[in-house]
Design goal:
alpha/beta; 2,3-Dihydroxybiphenyl 1,2-Dioxygenase, domain 1; 2 domains; four-stranded mixed sheet; 2 helices; 38% strand
């Protein structure tokens, strides 16, 4: 079976994006190529997101990255308390149930968990 392994995403400022994905989403730095202005961040299941300095699409909100967390309500509460702005709190939306925020370039970030998602189907 084929497995999705990594995704490369252009960002406006690689250092800002690196900090945001590590601090806000809790991703881990796999490697950092400061000279090439690219960083690889990965989740707990070894999916790697390459963030490289490049031209961000004209409509970044057309792209949505979805991350699962242990508890979407707890994620929302802790990040909100840290001052992270959300597009919306955990609620039922067209893709299921969860919260949504935007990364520094305007890419949509959906946050969900396995406990609340089935309740919306």
């Amino acid at each position: 079976m084929t497995r999705f392994d990594h995704l490369a995403v252009p960002v406006g400022d690689y250092a800002v994006s690196k900090q945001w994905y590590v601090e806000t989403l809790g991703l881990e730095i796999e490697f950092d190529m400061e000279g090439g202005r690219m960083v690889a961040v990965r989740d707990t299941h070894d999916f790697t997101l390459f963030l490289y300095q490049g031209e961000v699409p004209s409509n970044p909100s057309a792209f949505m990255f979805t991350f699962s967390v242990e508890d979407v309500h707890a994620f929302y509460r802790t990040r909100s308390a840290q001052g992270v702005p959300f597009v919306h709190e955990p609620k039922t939306v067209d893709w299921g149930f969860g919260a949504e925020l935007s990364d520094p370039d305007g890419y949509r970030i959906a946050i969900w968990d396995e406990q609340t998602m089935p309740k919306t189907r």
